[in-house]
């Protein structure tokens, strides 16, 4: 089944829908304040992508581009995407919506890095991700799982 | 009630006990490999602190010192502690073990930063922590809650 993944815009409807997701936090509150204070415009681009069921947002993720100067995971280092807040609403799980979002993230053909949450390693491995070699100073308790596009490999740290 | 908080040493018993915690991940697997490969010695210091009930580890957290050169949260900037993997085993919740660990983290008299997990803001605020002003480039989807010792405040970003 193919799902349409949309880049989400920041407006009051989107921010209201975000409240349904468990990982609603400081990031979303900050977006709401910026909208209220006219620091960002209505319908401006957000780092979030999502899948709608009819009019209802039922799955989302955030993608944030890390520039190569800050890339400590990949080589050659041409920047990568950090994927976070991947979440499917409870009644919509098991339909492949999470996988569809992750597959979409891969289409940019940049390496992807995520912090695999508890007991999610099976999911990430199914999606073609691999755990990194853990480095305390860099990874700080995270569970980094990464996806390498063709020609990219793990960065050897000095 | 006062609980004794101990710095945990890395050995096979500790690493076996870590498997009871939901946030067991790449960090713990890496410690196990390092022990097996003799890269680290048995009973070497770990970044983890915990509380025992008799002989059984029932609560833990990790504290990692961030040097001032990498401090983007506090000023004056004299380094801070990053607290992660705070977790109490299910049967031992509601007894103040989590609070005891956090209070222990404060005794170093350095600022403390954590990534508040979903719906934990009430707990962190009760512990005297505050949410930061969210900055996408720095916080990348995290929910940073911080504790300021006397004389320390939020860093103003350029």
CATH architecture term of chain A? 3-Layer(aba) Sandwich
Query: Oligomeric state of the chains?
Result: homodimer
* Overall morphology of chain A: globular
Number of domains of chain A: 1
Number of strands of chain A: 9
Low-confidence parts of chain A: none
**Rounded average pLDDT of chain A:** 94
CATH T-level topology of chain A = Aminopeptidase
Secondary structure: helix percent of chain A: 10-25%
Q: What's the CATH class label of chain A?
A: Alpha Beta
* Helix run count of chain A: 5
* Helix and strand pattern of chain A: EHHEEEEHEHEHEE
The gyration radius over C-alpha positions of chain A equals: 16 Å
EC number (chains A, B): 2.3.1.-
Pfam families (chains A, B): Acetyltransf_1
Enzyme class (chains A, B): transferase
Domain N-acetyltransferase (chains A, B): 8-150
Explain how this protein is built.
Two copies of one chain form a homodimer. Chain A is α+β, with helices and mostly antiparallel strands and 158 residues long. Chain A has one domain (6-154): Aminopeptidase (3-Layer(aba) Sandwich). Chain A contains five helices and nine strands. Chain A has helices at residues 12-18, 26-36, 97-106, 121-126, 136-139; strands at residues 5-10, 44-53, 56-66, 74-75, 80-88, 112-115, 130-131, 144-147, 153-154. The first copy, chain A, has a seven-stranded mixed beta sheet with strand order 1-2-3-5-6-8-7. The first copy, chain A, has a two-stranded antiparallel ribbon with strand order 4-9. In chain A, a hairpin with a 2-residue loop joins strand 2 and strand 3 (56-66). Chain A starts with a strand and ends with a strand. Chains A, B: GO terms for molecular function: acyltransferase activity, transferring groups other than amino-acyl groups.
């Amino acid at each position: 089944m193919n799902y349409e993944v949309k880049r989400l815009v920041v407006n009051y409807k989107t921010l209201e829908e975000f409240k349904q997701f468990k990982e609603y936090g400081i990031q979303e509150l900050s977006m709401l304040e910026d909208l209220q204070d006219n620091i960002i415009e209505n319908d401006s681009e957000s780092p979030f992508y999502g899948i709608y069921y009819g009019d209802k947002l039922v799955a989302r993720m955030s993608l944030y581009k890390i520039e190569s100067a800050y890339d400590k995971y990949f080589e050659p280092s041409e920047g990568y995407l950090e994927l976070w807040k991947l979440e499917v609403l409870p009644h919509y799980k098991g339909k492949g919506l999470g996988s569809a979002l992750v597959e979409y993230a891969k289409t940019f053909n940049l390496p992807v890095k995520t912090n695999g949450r508890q007991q999610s390693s099976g999911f990430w491995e199914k999606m073609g991700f691999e755990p990194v070699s853990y480095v305390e100073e860099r990874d700080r308790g995270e569970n980094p799982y990464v996806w390498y596009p063709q020609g990219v490999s793990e960065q050897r740290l000095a």
